[in-house]
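Tutorial sheet, problem 5. The two components below are modelled jointly, 481 residues in total.
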Amino acid sequence: MYAWDFAALKPYWGLIWQGLGVTVFYTVITVIAGLAIGLAAGILRTTAPRWVTIPLRGYIEVFRCTPLLVQLVWVYYALPVLIGVDMSAATACFLTLSLYAGSFYAEIFRGGIEAIDRGQWEAGQAIGMQQSKIFRRIILPQAVQVMIPALINQTIMQLKNTSLVSTVAVGDLLYQGSVITAASYRPLEVYTTIAVLYFVVLFPLTLVADQLEQRMGAHR
Amino acid sequence: MSQESLKENPILAAENIQKAFGDNKVLKGVSLSVARGEVVTLIGASGSGKSTFLRCLNLLEMPQHGALAIGRHRFAFGEGQCGPDRAQLALLRRDVGMVFQHFNLFPHMSVLDNVIEGPVQVKNMAKAEAREFGRDLLAKVGLADKADSFPGKLSGGQKQRVAIARALAMKPDVMLFDEVTSALDPELVSEVLAVIRNLVSEGMTMILVTHEMAFAADVSTRVGFMSEGVMAEIGAAADVIGRPQNPRLAAFLSRFHRAAV
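Model answer (structure tokens):
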């Protein structure tokens, strides 16, 4: 039987917290950037002319249909060579994670907007509302209700996906885990702790999501 | 007063309206002129183009040919015409109310907020004033006690009455009713028709598409029978429904009489 020794991690807690901070930081900024990209791309895909929607579709499918790890490595190693610009690992990670999240959010927004009955647009038009106002006041609020579960799901995935930044030596929770493992020779304790930390952060988020979903749908 | 003198100064005049969806010519040149205070009912088999024609009157469908004049709004359609821009469309629709078969209430807003959305957002009416106005309208359709409910909690008949109040809130010159009782359970039809009958007695100009023949015969100034994209017959209700000349109309009505038995 393996003898657990979590006390062995004591000297490394500073690193663990630091790693968790980096993970949360990357999640927050790339979720915000991703939501902005996704909202813009999702709206444009439902309303813009074809010369806009076709390239957008291209962007979305490229990011949805290639592994995030491949994207990350490509943006970090290949892109700087192609465009002749040096990119720090932090920038490459921010860019890739934001675009990746944006492509998924875009499809959630598009689906949510298109799920709203055409009669809602017509009802707004029939009382003389302008298209942009119908979108803002009638369509988007209903679409968001439909989208909340999918948006939360994608955000939870995004936090877990940030673990991939460790492959380009950005010091997130997983990266610090591997550093501590190399120093302490305690992989079981280290990776168990890290798994628990991911869970402790994400589980409350799912509870909040459930509540939000219930409250927003209360008058249906 | 004769019908012709009434129509000398029509509030609505649609001329030679044509509309096709792809190769399917739904409207093959329909004209209609309506005087203020008139109640015109359009009847016809499904696919005859009556709903499409009604939707052309507030330009939810854009005609490909013809002309439309409602109040001070004038539009011409066809080659060489650039067509109305969004602002012109919005202005027209302030003055033309529409009630839909499937209500299309805004489910995320209370009943009162549904009714005042137009006055507040389109006409910039002050919210307090709009609330009072909205409550009056809800009282008028018999739903004063439902102001704070959400549409999801209402029966079909109640929803449709809210939809009527919402359209009235814009103080339209003309009201369009697109099969507004077709989606209702039979026992809920009469409460909606009573509200419409009330509007008729107030002199509201309206155009209705309906399958309620008895109601049409009762309230209409004129009844128009549409068939295969044309206005096959139009005239006083007693003539069109009582003494149909067109064989298609006679066949259409006989199907109704049989169904009613």
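Marking note: Chain A touches chain B at residues 117, 119-120, 122-123, 125-131, 133, 137-138, 141-142, 145, 219-220 (CB under 8 Å). Full credit if you identified this.
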